[in-house]
Design goal:
By secondary structure, the chain is of the alpha/beta class. The protein has a four-stranded parallel sheet with strand order 3-2-1-4, with helices on both faces. The protein contains three helices and four strands. The two termini are 23 Å apart. Helix 1 (15-27) links the parallel strand 1 and strand 2 (33-39).
Length: 113
């Protein structure tokens, strides 16, 4: 099958580098577009923090997630068209991205990569 646009769902973890490498090996022969999506950690899970600090935690988590995604892109060795950082239900964001951007293959991993 010929692929035109791959969406890779990654987590902020070292295993994601291997997942992106696998996606690149699939995309390269077809010169397919490649996009990455991840979920940002929800700062509300840190409920032991004071409410005024929640915005700072949110900003820190956003920055850490962005830096990790930038690192994935720089080490991919292949052009990445979109970097999507979402919050909430990943499945909803994946479905929307597939419909709106013409994704024809979604790649995701788990701890057993």
């Amino acid at each position: 099958m010929r692929y035109a646009h791959l969406l890779v769902a990654v987590s902020v973890s070292p295993e994601s580098h291997r997942l992106v490498a696998k996606a690149v090996s699939i995309a390269r022969p077809f010169q397919a577009r490649l996009s990455l999506i991840t979920l940002m950690s929800d700062p509300e899970m840190y409920n032991h923090l004071a409410a005024p600090m929640m915005e700072n935690v949110r900003e820190i988590l956003q920055e850490e997630t962005r830096q990790f995604m930038d690192e994935l892109v720089s080490r991919a060795g292949y052009p990445v068209e979109n970097i999507l950082i979402a919050s909430g239900e990943l499945s909803e964001h994946v479905q929307h991205t597939c419909r709106s951007q013409g994704v024809d293959l979604v790649i995701y991993g788990n701890q057993n990569l």
